[in-house]
Amino acid sequence: MIEPGDALPALTLEGSDGRIALAERGGPLLLYFYPKDDTAGCTREAQDFSALLPQFAALGVELLGVSKDSAAKHRKFTEKYDLSVPLATDDGTVMEAFGVWIEKQLYGRRYMGIDRSTFLFDGEGKLFRAWRKVRVPGHAEAVLAAAKEMLGK
Question: Which intervals hold domain Thioredoxin (predicted)?
């Protein structure tokens, strides 16, 4: 499990424009992991980050949402809700490295799923802050405030 101060793992994701090598990103990076496209909480989270994307961009912070959904499903989700935040697909490798692929329980049934989590990396690729078991309301704003703190703005 990745902790503050740890380096961004040298792993890849599948983005809409091809492979994304995480460790090769230049500048600050915000990765947020979410369970599933087109569900209430995940939609709200993507809309909140999309609304704040210009403010993150002004700080030089790149955003990337990650789930196990396919690129085709991401495209439909993005178009349906006019999202501007980029989304990527993971086969589970990156989720395992970040410790967000966990056992969950719903109505007494146990299953494996994604723990809604967010990770903010500085310009050197070191983890500045992590949020686990995220509650969506107000989260994007809290992350933006942390990015400003990280960058001294």
Answer: 2-152
Q: How confident is the model over 117-146, as pLDDT tens digits? A: 999 999 999 999 999 999 999 999 999 999
The DSSP 8-state label assigned to residue 24 in this structure reads G
Q: Which domain holds residue 136?
A: 12-151
Catalytic residue among 2, 31, 42, 88: 42
Handedness of CA 92, 34, 113, 99 (dihedral sign): positive
pTM for the whole thing?
0.94
Note whether residue 3 is domain-resident.
Answer: no
> 21 catalytic, yes or no?
no
* Domain membership flag for residue 134: yes
